Structure formats: structure tokens, C-alpha cells
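Record filed below.
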Amino acid sequence: MPAATTALHRAVAGLIALPLLTLAACGYGSEAKDVGTAEVAAGAEKIDGLDSVRIGYFGNVTHATALVGNQKGFFQKELGATKAKYAVFNAGPSEIEALNSGSIDIGWIGPSPSINGYTKSGGKNLRIIGGSASGGVKLVVNPDKIKSLDDVKGKRIATPQLGNTQDVAFLNWIAERGWKVDPQSGKGDVTVVRSDNKVTPDAYKSGSLDGAWVPEPTASKLVAEGGRVLLDESDLWPDKKFVITNIIVSQKFLKEHPKAVEAVLKASVDTNEWIEANPADAKAAVNRQLEADTGKALPAEVLDPAWESIKLTDDPLAATLDAQAEHAVKAGLLDKPDLDGIYDLTLLNKVLKAKGKPAADDAGLGSRQ
């Protein structure tokens, strides 16, 4: 595996040090919040002899599968007498650290922290085992200051964090327009302001930001403050699909407890099926779990458009993760990463086959172990 460059070390160090979001669509801090467990059915048996499986996710709309799976008890149903325990995270690095330390076993997380976590460990700490969501990222601007894409030049545009998924996407978009920005400082033809998603709407409202390239529900919060969607990132991708949330597992847990991992993946696929069949009820379930996890439900003017922009998927859309890694290289945040082996879709494809669904592709980046 190629040695990381100084730029990679700086980017990864910055991601770990900043108490901001590295996961697309979420992150307002660096601590995890433990949340309650569902009831275990009478007569149920433990899987792999485990007392519990610890599942991490973010309290955001792009983690709808995990939110609904918790709220409606899908994970607990498949795990039997093995208790599904949950931890809600506010930043990608803290979830990766929790996975590395064994504080969680399986997590819902975005592509950039997945890539950083995998490459930093030399390919030894995690595997991506499934997909969860696509889309849900927008460039929202002040319509009085920015009326066209060309008007973005010279303006102050926020992203959630140095090197996070949206930051990489925005820097790549800037480069493709022929503009220059220093990736570390954010200074150049556009001023890229790394701003916590929790405070970005207030910063926009105060006039200190001209816009933001952000995930849901932050994008819809900006629109509620008078912003206008100038660009939906989905429009930049083939078939309008790109990974925004993956399912990851520690390699140790995957090796030692494949039945438990398979149970969680089956629950994830079942949850996505239920969401597709019951969109209104699913949206309400997401908001109930968000309120339980964060203490505050989303108002309809934010939840409704955010929900519409997210597409749930069992497929991890591996080719788009590979492309996002290339974007980080082009932006100067990463050396060419070696992503061989980052995926293991064996158990996911077993679950999909049992349901008569097509297999997911790992884009040639699957584990050969």
C-alpha cells in the first residue's frame, strides 16, 4: 500500500482533531450518545452466543435505514435474544475510533471517513459491507448575492469539515470549473469556510456566509432561512446516484461473528423494503427516532424536502466511492489511496439472493481473503 503523503496526514489529522462532521449529512460534535434498546422477543435465542451487537449511526435523515431499523425494531427482530444496542455519533472520526476500539461493532457512516479509516489503518480495521443511502447533498446560496453558478466565484461557501465528503465534492467541483483554492486553508477563487452543520444556518442568516455545499437536513434548513438550491449534487453523477451512507463493520467482528453481521444486513434490507412500501409512516418513524436521539424533531418544512432528496439503497454504489477517493486526490487532500479489499459484500449478496434481488457490485475493490 502506498505510503501516505504529508497532505494525507494533515487531512486525516484535521479530521480527527476537529469536532465537526466527517460524515456526509450529519455531525454536530465528536461524542457518541448511547440510546435505548428494543425489547427482546420471548423465547428468542442469541446469535453467535453474543449478549449484544453495538450499532452506531448519526441522528440525521441520511441514516434513515438505521433510524427506522431502531425505531421499528427490525434489528432486534433479526438478532433474537442478542440485544441490539445503539450509539448515536456526531462526527465520522469518533465513530471510526469507536469501531477501532471495539465500542461499536457495526456502523452507518459516510464515504470519506470510510476511506480515511481504511487507508489510515493500512486496510486492517474495517470493511464496507453494504449501502444505505444516495443523494441528499445540495449547494444552497443567498439568491440576492448568487444568481448563477459563475457567481459562486469570489463568495464565501461553507462545507461541514476539512476533508469530509461534501468538502471533497465542492473542492472537486471548483477545480472542474478551473478555479483555484488551497485545500487546507480554503482560500482562493472561492473562500471555503469549514463550518459545523449545526451553526451553518445561523451563520448564513447573519450574512457571514453566501451559501453552503451541505447534506440534508442542513440544506433544507438553509432553504427555510431564505436560501435557494443552486445545484443538487445528484445531477453531477451518472444516473444521479452516489453513495452518501455506507454500512461498515470491524474486520475482527466480521470474522468472528458472521451470523450476527448477516442478521444486521438482513434487517437493513428488510427496513429499506418497509420504508419503500410505507414512505409516510417511515418519514414519521425517522422523525420520532431523531427526536429520541437528539431531543428535537425536524419541522415539516425541513423534513419533507430532506426526505424527498434521499434515496435509500442496499447497493453501496462502490464505483462512486472510488470516484470520490479520486476527487480527494485531485483536491490535494489524499495521495492515491489503495482501496483494494475495502468491500466485503459476501453476506449482503447472500441476503439479496435469498430475496430474489440482484447482487451488489464491489467495483473490483472487494476483499480476497
